[in-house]
Every structure is written in structure tokens, then in C-alpha cells.
Amino acid sequence: MNVLALDAALGGFSTAVARNGQVAASRSEPGQIALERGLTLVNDVLSDAQLGPEQIERLAVGIGPGSFTGLRIAIAYAKSLASVWRRPLVPIDSFDLLEYGSGLAEMLSVVVGRRDVISARYRSPSTTRRASGRIDQVLDALQLPQAGKLAVVGGPKDVLDALAERAIIVRAFEPAVTPAAAAAALAAGSRTPPKSLHEVRADYGELPAAKPPRF
Description:
- This protein has 2 domains: 2-93 and 177-199, 2-Layer Sandwich (Nucleotidyltransferase, domain 5); 103-173.
- The strands form 2 sheets. The protein has a 5-stranded mixed sheet with strand order 3-2-1-4-5, sandwiched between helices. Strands 8-7-6-9-10 form a 5-stranded mixed sheet.
- It has helices at residues 34-48, 68-85, 94-99, 135-142, 157-165, 180-188, and strands at 2-7, 13-19, 22-29, 58-62, 89-92, 107-112, 117-123, 128-134, 149-153, 169-173.
- The radius of gyration is 17 Å and the shape is elongated.
- It is 30% helix and 28% strand.
- The N and C termini lie far apart (47 Å).
């Protein structure tokens, strides 16, 4: 199966193609470049993989939480391509992208939002909890275990420091598969796409800093 994936939630913009469960090509650029460069990178990655749109069987997109602007643009691109090419679109959340390929049964995944604001998910064999907000509020809500070492992926220094202050021993990991779109392309191959593109929605994790006015 040939899968084209896009992500702009986890820093910058990335796109990748997976062919039969292997990453055939990937491209990524840092910063808020999704609007200006996103479709160019999609074209480049298809060229790198030596595939045309007609050979893409499925699309995938990171749905957040993460960058508010990047999320909207990447999802809009993915929906447009899926609609024009008449292909299914698989939504994949940022926590799954960070954890993909880790093979760990217990993990804390952290996505940075606005300054001093995070979204995080704690997952173990017996429970899954997530929260968004200020760092201390999120760590309180997650009710993290105090015993043993806690695997953390995506955690910036201020989150790791806050965990240390709580006497939680941390093993910090980088994502096993990068860029994020590569993880999305691989993960999408084994997931069932929703029946409608309208079911693919952004998960911002928190309310944006400014709310649109009501008229």
C-alpha cells in the first residue's frame, strides 16, 4: 500500500510516503512554512518516491494536538487532496505519532502548545489519561506514578524539570520515527479510515489564546 502523510502539528511541516510498510521518502522543514511551502514539499516527496497521485492509495494526516495554525493548514491540504484524488484519509493524533515504534507499554507523551502550555497523555497497560493546560496543572491531572522510571517522549526541559521536582525519575526519549509524517504514513497502513472526510477534525488540545468574536 502506498500512503502519503502530512503533519504540521509537531513543529514545522513534514510529509512522507510509505510503500508496503516502509518509508520510501520524507521531507520536512522547520517553522511555520505550511502555507508557503507545504504543497511544494508534498510534490517533492512524491517525486522522491517516484510515485504519482494515481498511485497513492491512502492519505494520512496528524490531527494534533499541536500548532494551531499548522494543524488547520495541514488538515485542509490533506482533505483537499483526498477529495480530489478520491482516496481515504486517516487521522492520527500527535501522541500516537510521538510514540510510534517505541514498543513501550507505559509512556508519557508531551506536545508543546503556547508558551508554558502543554498537552500530555499518560498511557499504561491499565489506563490512559490526558490533559491540557499549564504544566503543573497537567501533571496534577495525569496522576503520574511515583515508583519506577517514567518514559517520556516529546518533553521539553521545563516539563522534565517539573517532573524532577516531583521526585519522578525520568527516561527521556526522542521519537523512534521522524519526521512526524513518516510515523503517520506507517501507522495509517493498519488503521481503518473514517467513512467521511468530515469526521477528520483537528484536536487543538486547548482553546486558542484568542477567541473569535461573536456577531
